[in-house]
Design goal:
Layout (H helix, E strand, L loop, with lengths): L1 H69 L2 H68 L3 H11 L1
Helix pairs in contact: 1-2
Keywords: Apoptosis, Coiled coil, Endoplasmic reticulum, ER-Golgi transport, Membrane, Protein transport, Receptor, Transmembrane, Transmembrane helix, Transport
Pfam family, one: Bap31
GO cellular component, one term: endoplasmic reticulum membrane
């Protein structure tokens, strides 16, 4: 009887420890997922702001081109210098937009990976919970002590 109780206690403590580890991992994955979701929102707003600024500079460039055509050649030199500066600014903004877009896509990929990993972990947890309930059912049935003894001996 003491052997049966000690084996039962061993199984209970083992399952408790295992479920504690699983729950701890779930909590860490959920916190990481929340962080990635917040980062995704920030990167998305940055990309939108950069895109708006690039459109604004392109519109100003077009206005300057129209003004340049309407004015004489004396003012063309000044306007060309400003135009070149605006084109450089536009290129800088485009590269910044590409960088933020890449960061956004990376964050989205990370979020998807975290979701998939969380789903897999929850499936494993459900499976272990089913096994645990089956073991408890078999433990409560008559003749379960002999089954558990055979099972322990097989380890």
């Amino acid at each position: 009887m003491k052997l049966f109780r000690s084996q039962r206690n061993l199984y209970i403590s083992g399952f408790s420890l295992f479920f504690w580890l699983v729950l701890r991992r779930l909590v860490t994955l959920i916190t990481q997922l929340a962080k990635e979701l917040s980062n995704k929102g920030v990167l998305k707003t940055q990309a939108e702001n950069t895109n708006k600024a690039a459109k604004k500079f392109m519109e100003e460039n077009e206005k300057l081109k129209r003004i340049l055509k309407s004015h004489g050649k004396d003012e063309e030199c000044v306007l060309e210098a400003e135009n070149k500066k605006l084109v450089e600014d536009q290129e800088k903004l485009k590269t910044e937009l590409r960088k933020t877009s890449d960061a956004l896509s990376k964050a989205q990929n990370d979020v998807m990976e975290m979701k998939m990993q969380s789903e897999r972990l929850s499936k494993e947890y459900d499976q272990l919970l089913k096994e645990h309930s089956e073991l408890q059912k078999s433990h409560s049935q008559p003749g379960a002590a002999a089954f558990l003894v055979k099972e322990v001996e097989s380890f």
